[in-house]
Amino acid sequence: MRFISLKSYLILLIIIIASFCLLFTTLWVLYQSDKQTQQQTNQALNSATKQLHVQLIRVQTNFERPDNFPNLSLWQEAENYSGLCVRFIGLQDRVEQSICRGGGVTRSWPDWFDGFYRWVFRPGKAVEQALSHAGKHYGSVMVLPSVDIALDNAWQDVRKLMGLATLTIVSLSILLYFAIGYALRPGRVIVEELQKMKANEFSSRLPDFFITEWQYMGREMNQLAADLQSNLAERKALALKLVDIQEHERKFLARELHDEFGQSLAGLSAVASLITQLAEKDYPPLAKQGEKVSDITSYMMGLLRDMLIRLRPADFDELGLIDSLKAMIAGWNSQSGGKTQYQLEVIGDFSDLNDTLPVSIFRMAQECLTNIAKHSKASNALILLQRISSTAEPNVSEHILLKIEDDGIASDLTFIRRSGIGLLGLQERVDALGGTLQFKTLTPSGLAIHIEIPLFNGREVGDE
């Protein structure tokens, strides 16, 4: 479906309305032209009839010879009607005299106008009036208008009207084009503001407009942007608080599991080993059961270690973000058995970040690597962590870029629509930190994940 701009639509609508007005005006002009021809014909009939009445009076009073009647030359000399023929029809229905004025014209009108005018107005209709005097009937006077002259007069009137109307419509359209464009300029400003709001930019505000409707819309848009900005800030603060609470809970659970459950498993393993040693001499069957208990305890301790790594790396607080990432990369390389080569590249210093952001970066990298290991069937995976200076946004001094790339089997982004809890949690973390998350397929196959987190004048979201 093709769309048309509001300005073009209004101009087109004005031209269409003006064209209809021109059409009706043209019909009115043609009607007036035909009416004028009829009036001239009737006036000529009355004038010729009066002239003949006067001539009859002169004949009766012997001021004029009877054989001079009828004499229409007096009408021809006295009147200035063009395109009319006056005929005197005697008692025998015979034309006794006929006089015409201005009958020949050069044809300048087109055929379509000729046919239309003849079809609508039926030009050339004769008018007739009986001539009687002193109770005696002498015949009748007939006036026939010239069809060609009627057509020529009508066409000249239409040409003048069309020329003036065309000039008026063109001039009016040009003036209205600029006037409407100026009046609709706030619409473009509002669309630009909506595009910013679509990109989650709610800080800018619309200016005041001199047109009431635009001013009302702008005021409502500004209020909407302010409400959305406030709601988004509250949502980010709440999400960040939830992430922070989640990390504290994970830290607490990791500590409790390590201190309580881990120590209990260690004690259980020691007791099982002691039972095995004592039972080997006195009761060998019990020694085998002790070995089974030791195996189960070792398995549970392995599960506990994996669980503690997922909850919070044991040495994260001591090692910091970068060393923890290196340890995680080493762990993935060890687990993959050479099927996937994991690499880490770090650009910049990350030692001045507070506790929440490094842990969130680690969690996001951990989630991405987990998805690579589960789904990508990649041979290589790269994690790039970079600190980038920024001047494009106010109050944003730097960005932290976390980019994860692999050469796996991904060839499109349809998996995003059916993503599970992992990608949803990743998006929530990014939103809570005020960042952006983008997915991009690589050639010939593979996936790149770009995460950018802003640092507001050196501080991340949530710092006071």
UniProtKB/TrEMBL annotation:
Pfam short name (any one): HATPase_c
Keyword check for Coiled coil: no
GO cellular component, one term: membrane
Enzyme class: transferase
Keywords: Kinase, Membrane, Transferase, Transmembrane, Transmembrane helix, Two-component regulatory system
Transmembrane segments: 6-31, 161-184
Single GO term (MF): phosphorelay sensor kinase activity
InterPro entries with a match to the protein in the record: HATPase_C_sf, HATPase_dom, Sensor_HK_TwoCompSys, Sig_transdc_His_kin_sub3_dim/P
Domain Signal transduction histidine kinase subgroup 3 dimerisation and phosphoacceptor: 249-315
EC number of the protein: 2.7.13.3
All copies of domain Histidine kinase/HSP90-like ATPase, residue ranges: 359-455
PANTHER family xref list: NITRATE/NITRITE SENSOR PROTEIN NARX-RELATED (PTHR24421), SIGNAL TRANSDUCTION HISTIDINE-PROTEIN KINASE_PHOSPHATASE UHPB (PTHR24421:SF58)
Official protein name in the record: Signal transduction histidine-protein kinase/phosphatase DegS
UniProt organism field: Methylophaga muralis
Organism classification: Bacteria, Pseudomonadati, Pseudomonadota, Gammaproteobacteria, Thiotrichales
